[in-house]
Specification:
The protein has 171 residues and is an alpha+beta fold. Helix content is 27%, strand content 37%. The protein has three helices and ten strands, in the order H-E-E-H-H-E-E-E-E-E-E-E-E. The chain has helices at 2-23, 51-62, 73-84; strands at 29-37, 42-50, 85-89, 96-97, 101-108, 111-119, 127-131, 142-148, 153-158, 164-166. The protein has a six-stranded mixed beta sheet with strand order 5-6-2-1-8-9. The chain has a four-stranded antiparallel beta sheet with strand order 4-3-7-10. The model is unreliable at 1-24 (pLDDT under 50).
Length: 171
């Protein structure tokens, strides 16, 4: 009787674990913070992505086994992010992509935090943001970009069908 009860408890725990792990990842999202630092005259960008989502996207794209142990882990993530996230200055009929410098990345609590920056002395209003991070691999991926500078605070939302948005002055 004790073995049966223990076995049933084990089965229930396993089923709960499977249910929780499948329910825990129904939503695919990325978060990016975009801000102007007036002390350094730069745009600072911080991306937060689910680690196994970006790992799977790069593995699929490169047709390799990809994890943090991969010898080119950071380089491949850098190339992926630089191909799928861009900021373009279209003010005064320009079409200048702002070159974002790679600062680095860190992995914490199943997330990858990616840091970029660029010299920039203006306001964000009027910049075009192109963000299609992970939408090719995960069609339900939603990416949010929160932005702020000295006068402007807001958010942009991106998806498989909405990959480009412009920062407007919301004051």
């Amino acid at each position: 009787m004790m073995k049966t009860s223990l076995f049933k408890s084990l089965i229930v725990c396993l089923l709960c674990g499977v249910a929780l792990s499948s329910a825990a990842h129904r939503y695919f999202f990325g978060l990016t913070e975009l801000s102007v630092n007036p002390k350094t005259n730069s745009i600072e960008v911080i991306h937060q992505l689910t680690a196994h989502d970006i790992d799977n996207a790069i593995a699929e794209q490169q047709q390799i086994h990809f994890s943090p142990e991969h010898p080119e882990y950071e380089q491949l993530i850098q190339a992926y992010v630089e191909a799928h996230f861009k900021i373009v200055d279209v003010k005064d009929n320009k079409n200048n992509e702002i070159a974002l410098n790679w600062v680095g990345l860190e992995i914490a609590k199943s997330n990858v935090y990616i840091y970029q920056e660029a010299n920039f002395e203006n306001f964000l209003s009027g910049l075009v943001v192109k963000n299609d991070l992970l939408v090719d691999t995960y069609p339900k991926q939603i990416n949010t970009v929160n932005y702020k500078d000295g006068t402007n605070i807001g958010s942009l939302t991106f998806s498989a069908s909405e990959k480009i948005a412009i920062i407007t002055n919301n004051n």
